[in-house]
Design a protein that fits this description.
mainly alpha; eight-stranded antiparallel β-sheet; 11 strands
Length: 1305
Amino acid sequence: MQEMSLTELLLHIQADALPYLVLNKKKDVIQMIAEARNETELWQPCLDNANLGRILALLITQETEDIQKYTMSLLRHISPHFDEFNLADLLQTEPLATTLHVLKAAADADESRKPQIRTALNQMASMILVANGESKKGSQATGRFLHHHALALMAQLTDIINDGPGKRAPFHERRQCIKAMEEMIRIGKNNVRIVRPQISASILAAMADDELRVAAFSCWASMMFCFEESEIDILIETTFYLINQYWSTFEDISKQLSEHLINFLLEKQLPTIEKYIGKLPSFSHINELSDIELKLSKLRSPLDNRTAFFLFAERIYHETSGVVLHALRELAEYLQRHQGYLQASAISEQPDPIVSNLIRALLDCASRYNGFDAEISNLCTQCIGLYKLNPEASYGEREDHKLYCEAIFRFLDYAMRWVHLKRSAPNPSPREIASIEKVTDFLASFPAESISQRAMDCSAYSRALFHLEQHIRQVDEGKDSIHDRHRLVQQVQDIYTHIDEPDGLEGISAHLPLLDIEQQVLSHRKAGRWTAAQTWRLEVLGSYVNDKQYVLSIRRAAMELLRPRFSDADISALWLSSARLARKANTMHQSFNAVLRASKLGDESATIENARLLWKEGYNRKAIQTLQGAIDSKVFSQHSFAEHDASDRNIGTQQNMLTARAKLLLAKWLDTAGQTSASSLREQYRAIPLIFGQWEKGHYYVGRHYKKVLESERALKPDDQSDEYLTGEVAKLVIENYLRSLSYGTKYLYQTLPRILTLWLELGAQFDKAPEGKVSLSRELYHRRKMQLEALHDILRKHLTRLPAYIFYTALPQLVARIAHPNLDVFRLLQIIILKVVEAYPRQALWSLFAIMTTKQASSERKARGQQILLHVKDRNIKVENGGYSLPSLLRKGERLAEQLLLACNNGDFQSNRTTMASITRDLHFNHKCTPCPLVVPIEACLTATLPTLTDNLKRHKAFSGDVITISSFLDEVLVLGSLAKPRKLTARGSNGVNYGLLIKPKDDLRTDQRLMEFNGMINRSLKRDADSSRRQLYIRTYAVTPLNEECGIIEWVEGLKTLRDILLNIYRSRGIVPNYHNLQQMMKDAVVGDKNTKIFTEGVLGMFPPVLPNWFISQFPNPSIWFTARLRYTRSCAVMSMVGTILGLGDRHGENVLFEEGNGGIFHVDFNCLFDKGLTFAQPERVPFRLTHNMVAAMGIYGYEGPFRKCSELTLSILRQQEETLMTILEAFIYDPTLDLQKDKRKKHEVVRLNPQSVVQSIKRKVEGLLPDESIPLGVEGQVDELIKQAVNPKNLSAMYIGWCPFL
């Protein structure tokens, strides 16, 4: 036991000791307690709220003739300060605490002393009532007094009896409180019936504890003896359940009390017994109660099936879960025995309504106990399953009809596939065209609404939607009655209730003019908002069960069966996992239940999760207090661990880990709540790695704290900035702690490494420059900065030897880009890092060095340093893993390949604006002697390093597969695209025999595209980690981009793409619609002038181009299920890229830059030159945040941009806000890179517009925070998405776009 000082001991025992010290007039000891409390007067500890009630309770229960005189004399002996009070005054100060301790005294006293204590309580009650202006009325005073304070007393009692997680009271104290509660019932009788529900709940919970069962049942029996008939009415079923449930575990005293209680009820409450006899369980299996069961059986009369079902339904609705469970067990047996009645009812012309009532009771019961009591939920499901319909009832007819419909569907599918293939064939003959038209007309003759209905009958919901939506579009085009459209939309809504896509249902609801209650219930239910739905339906029982929760429950059940191989600690860990999942899904009741389970298994770490729950529900102060209390009391040192982790070292490590987790959580909450000073907060963060130094997250958050300090200092005026900031010490602390974080894991790699490099390179460049706003740099500041930079370089060198090379490989483009850094010491370290990566992964990393091998800047510092690095590579005569090459020979082969690729990129004279074929040797003068090349094929799959999982060993982790795919040769056939730069598609044959398409693009700096692909990769990781976006499979399609120099590079070719422009113009051409761009441009100019002219665009321009993109989906994906999946993928990918593009200020989204994946319908964006709102600087500024033209909206389905597009946009934007720090870290490294010419307008070579990097960063931050231009109040996620959609579809904005953007497509 930890040693305790005298002061600590006095403070610890004061509440228990002071009553007896006052009673025995020990003024000297009381004086010592006062001094320990930093008080000077003896009366001060006595009048403390925590002590006064205990003191008064002990004094007034002493045997004396005059309680008031006796009590006050003792108090006045302690201090004359009490001369100012009488006893009533003091009792009124702490009536609850005094009453509670008097009741506890009565509970502990023997029967001979109880009357004395009860008399004292009555006198106390009388004094307080008189003081409050009420009359005493003799013996009724106690009852009325208890009636006033019953709720407050119960709150204090239950807080101890039914302890929550992390605060288990000692057994003797809990039992004492149960006895005190029994005393309150005996004294107060009906006066305390107001707290009957609280008493019942508390006792029922205590009954489950073996140590408390005797006291708990005695208290329950007192309630039955003392309360009047109306309360007995409510408790009778639960009483019989308790005796039935716990008889086998009852001690003799409880068994005797049970017999006495039932006999009392039979004698005094016979009408109540007779009223409920049909619902009361039998005692026939309890031999000791055979006499009582004989009396009860005489009261029971035989029940018919109908009455039995009625009584079961009522029992299932009982407020006590134990009664419900008992009823369900009996019902399951009863249903097995009475199948005949159920079948007779099912096939009769008028089925018995009692059967449907019982089903409703079972459904309601299942919903009420879902997630709380698995046995009850399972029994409800079992009982519902026992309702078996007559197997012959119209089954044959239904099956025949279904088979017939499915045969028709197969024919329709075949015919649609045939039409699709024939239309895809080039140059069809007139006869083939006629055949296609004939089959198309035949397919159109089938009524779409009828097919949809038959598909619904067959549960083919995608097919039903496929046909019904086409029919609705025809209704829209024909401008039929609004009533018909609303009716059809309601049918679509009904289809969506059967599809696992809640976003679509919400989108449909947005298009209905008025939602009735049922439609709102449907929408809430499918979205998983069960509380809002307020009801359950049979067809959705069990739907949307969280897969992870299900797996966890299976694992817990398996562990329970395999005890003692698995301990309480193993099972409690799974309960806490369930609690975390439920908390993140906002199912707080389920989370709290899981925390309670873990706590009951003795897992002290449940305290942390309980505190998290409090924080989540907005009880910030309580959460902080709970967590701080747990840390201060060192409950984590008592944590029990599994046997296989029971070594002293493992236990110590896990204890430290748990404490560190709690400390970090506390620091984050204090930081968020702003409840502590900056210096104290810093100490809170810095203490975490001292507790557990091997924890990646601990170091990361220390660095993150210093980063916040750095940013706040940066925002200050130069004269207000601290020395620590000006000298670079704060930046060094950020870097140092981030490096420590990387030493223990890669979870925060993309938050830390780009920031480390940016800060380091900035420090190295600025250490000899004057601070911002200053003319010159003082000598002292120069020396201090130099010292900080040298210290930082020592730290970097130390960590460089420890950190694996794949850490730096992820930032290799950023490292290579900065080799021309003005500080020579910084360059030397950069060189060491680059060489470390190249030596570890030469086949992959050398692709990043080609840009410095082949740079066009002949006399630049960049080229000279690049050559220096290459010389060092050539000097490293080491063997390359998985091959017979040395590093220098690998480099030589790579250089030869790079030279030939550059030649192929720039050679050839291609004048045609059409896509043409060429020869790689004849037209591009490519020399095949550069192949085979041992470098990997430059595609995403080969160039992307895999990071270790949480359980991997960081240093032994293999970032790339051993089976690398290298370049064997290039095929001679080259595809030359018709666009201005004439990019060429080469085909490389890999060492695995597979052909890979590589697009070499001249006259374009692809370094920006490369960095953006890195950024999109970070977005994809965030989307995958989020539960909601992962379930919707949100993603951005990425591909490898490899710059060869500042003017050309390689882009991974993605097969199966078609531009939006080609798709739409081909369909319009087939309908005889050809755009006249000159006329359209003039109409759009006219539409912009004045609000009244908007119709020129909405009716004139768009009227010439009806939405046809839905037809492409229908023809491209004739199978309804695949069509639905493709359309959903299109809508979701469109939403993700719209939000990401908006944040990045991505413009120039004309029809050639937006492509479709022909295999799955996903959106694919190319050409990222127009970034950071550069579109606003065009001669005709862009007005829309992203492309959402009428064709794109129509292709999303009849709900348009409501439903999946809006929901996925909100999800994406929400994740971007959550990941703001990571997002800005990567973007700042990108924006501030001096080698990237982001400011040049590549479409207008003669015109250069410079963007200020700081203003770009600020603009992105404003967007992420929800701030519109010139606005100071941020929008929420939903509000921002709504505003962006309005801007994107605004006809005035669309008509103001330049003609090449084609807003009419």
